[in-house]
Amino acid sequence: MGLAKGAGRMILHLYFARRFALVFTYVLGGFLVLVILLDFIEQLRRFRGMEITLSQKAHLVALNVPATLYQMLPLVTVLCSIMLFLNLARSSELVVTRAAGRSALRALYGPILTSLLIGLIAIAIINPIVAGTQKKYEQLLSSFFFITGQRRLCFKHRALVAPGRRAGANGHTCQTQQFGWHALV
Fold first, then answer.
1. 64 exposed, middle or buried (CB, 10 Å; 0-12, 13-18, 19+)?
2. Does the first or last residue of the chain, that is N or C, have fewer Cβ atoms within 10 Å of its Cβ?
């Protein structure tokens, strides 16, 4: 008993798709570790000398990481594609695929559909999560600056304003939060 006529092609597409998903997981995991480390160092620097606990800084990092990774998804996808096909070329799997009579463009079906699925998941599921965590991050960040501060900063117009003054050309009152000068550095 042999495989149905198109079954071998489907197995090859699934193989390439699974390899792409595996490489994507590894690269995204590496970027996740890097982003957590760099963001935690940034939070330590930003709040040095303030009375904010390490767990509060870690909470800020946890809220900021999804937005950063969401912005990095196109880069991760490109790097994964490069890594996948370099690995396939190094192990001669692309040569075997071509020798079996398969078009090189048809070998792209699995990774393309996998990256399309990743993109749809990112838009449908991760985007609302990022919006919620980013909003909570900004609220928490504002509350930390409000607790510690001496001056006021208009985040909307990115300008220092005196309390009660108007900022912006349209005369809107700026929503200001207090912060310490060392938070600007």
1. buried
2. N
**Could you tell me the sign of the dihedral formed by the alpha carbons of 166, 171, 173, 175, in that order?**
negative
Identity of the amino acid at 53: T
Query: Phi, psi (5° rounding) for residue 103?
Result: -70, 145
Q: How do residues 82-118 score in pLDDT, each as one tens digit?
A: 999 999 989 998 888 888 888 888 888 999 999 999 9
Residue 177's beta-bridge partner residues? 153
The two tokens of residue 175 are 């929503």
CA distances from residue 21 to 15, 78, 79 in whole angstroms, order as listed: 10, 13, 12
Here the tokens at position 31 are 């970027």
Q: In the 8-state DSSP scheme, what is residue 177?
A: E
Name the residue ranges covered by the structural domains of the chain: 7-147, 149-185
CA-CA distance, 134 to 119, in Å (whole number)? 20
What DSSP character marks residue 154? E
CA-based nearest residue to 37, from 1, 73, 8, 65: 65
148 by DSSP, 3-state: which?
helix
CA distances from 153 to 51, 66, 91, 173 (A): 20, 26, 56, 12
CA–CA separation, 90 and 114 (whole Å): 22
**Cα–Cα distance for residue pair 43/117, rounded to 1 Å:** 33
Residue given tokens 């692309």 in the structure block:
94
